[in-house]
Amino acid sequence: MGQTFSEKILGAKAGIRVKAGEIVIVSPDYILSHDNSAAVINEFRRFGIEKVKQPNKIVIVLDHVVPASTEKYAQNHKVIREFVQEQEIPNFFDVQNGICHQVFAENGFAMPGKLILGADSHTTSYGAFGAFSVGIGRSEAASVWATDEIWLRVPETIRIEIGGKLPPMVYAKDVILRIIGEGGADRANYKAVEFTGQAVHDFTLASRLVLANMAAEMGAKNGYFFPDERTFSWLEERAKDEYEPVTSDADADYEAILKYDVSSFEPQIACPHTVDNVKSVSEVEGLPFHQAIIGTCTNGRLEDLKVAAQILKGRKVHRAIRVLIIPASRREYLLALQEGVLEAFVESGCLILNPGCGPCLGAHQGILAPGERALSTANRNFRGRMGSRDSEIYLASPATVAASALEGKITDPRRFS
Amino acid sequence: MRKGKVWKYGDEINTDVIFPGKYTYSILEPEEMARHALEDLDPEFAQEVRPGDILVAGKNFGCGSSREQAATCLKFAGVQAIIAKSFARIFFRNAINQGLPVIQCSQAVDDIKNGEEITINFSEGRIETKRDVFDFAPLPEYILEILESGGLIPYIKNKIESQKKPS
Q1: Distance (Å) from the C-alpha of residue B50 to the closest C-alpha of chain A?
Q2: Is 0.95 topped by the overall pTM?
Q3: Which of A4, A157, A339, A415 could pair covalently with A252 via S-S, beta carbons 3.0-4.6 A apart?
């Protein structure tokens, strides 16, 4: 019997041949944390040791509430900056850089075959580049800082073969929402999800990131793609280290193999208050809303912004809608600026925020009042996440959000194709 | 061998009903967390639970938020182990890292009745009810060491301190 991607990477790290279900003790290649580094630092101090074991493996990106909106957040950021200096952590990205998952990838830390840990549930994102990347808790992050070790269970694997060609105005976001809607929020609990097939082969890395990012919403431990020419070319001038591409063997043991043909897919929308409450956009068309959000670690890259700008260009957003644009990083912001994408947004009446998590987790920059409804390109729509417990969040692609912002109600983007 | 009285619940017990979100930043002491354990699922639980009791549940126990307090509140309420058909991944880790044993065993869950006394043999991986015996994959030694230390932070602390001592 051959081995899966996850069995190979975790086995190589543990120095033994492993199979799904076993628990291994491994040392990661990188460990990411964000504004929660302040809480991780508190736990770390409890160990009574002075130095982190491997400062070069620690990557810290401030992104959740940037720039600081309250004195408390400012103090947190200050504690983190002082710790970074004290521990001589070289890979620190302050508030001007963007969302951790995008910044981590842009700086070449997300490489094929690497084992990446992150104190954030959407750490699954780096599977887009063929890495094994997994979210962990805060006290675990502290102990990895101290010991350079963690226990991980080798996950079983669900292979998802995605064939066909996407119809106009249907995107990676619609594909992953459809898969989550059919499988449910626990379909991949504790498991690895392998995305493969002709359709994902055609996907850009930005599109692959959408699927890997939202694998977390199926309960997955990690979600990944096999690296290919797109991956290697992205890493050409970025890779922080040498790397070895890893794929599953042809006779690897899969827990399940699911097949989809995207040729017949329609634009999808996740309705309140769970990500697996998915419908076709056409089923909820006409529903009025108040705030549109285009951005986040799920859909805030140039590719996403361009799709939205093409729909908005030369038109005005509906006067009842506040449209917030949040590029995923400084780099994506600059690219959008250079291509005239931001100009189209401003002219159509959108508000452009600085790169960061923005209102996605309900901390600042666009909190919802009771009774308000948001349509967002983000990855979570749990009750109360973006503000009031009595507000609602719908999740869709940048095309659907842009089309809906023009009409003032949920709108099928195919009307604009 | 550990005996305990069972509190049995159903599928998809999420972290919000285990430890409500409204308390996550206001309640910081574990003993106080315990007084709100399972508050939105079974308001009697926190008053009636006794040290050594065992929680039994269906699939995807602990789904939802990653809040570590969901594990902490059950541990400090006196729960000595949780047996479920399956656990949400982050809860599973948080429970072990908080020193709370978690056992996955569907057959046992189907057999176990609310309120009865059952026995768990951790080293041999066995659950005994009045009617039957069920095997579960024993937890690996490394995980057992974390549990015996009372969680990940004390485990790592002990390890670091023992390395500091001259041999």
Answers
A1: 27
A2: no
A3: A4
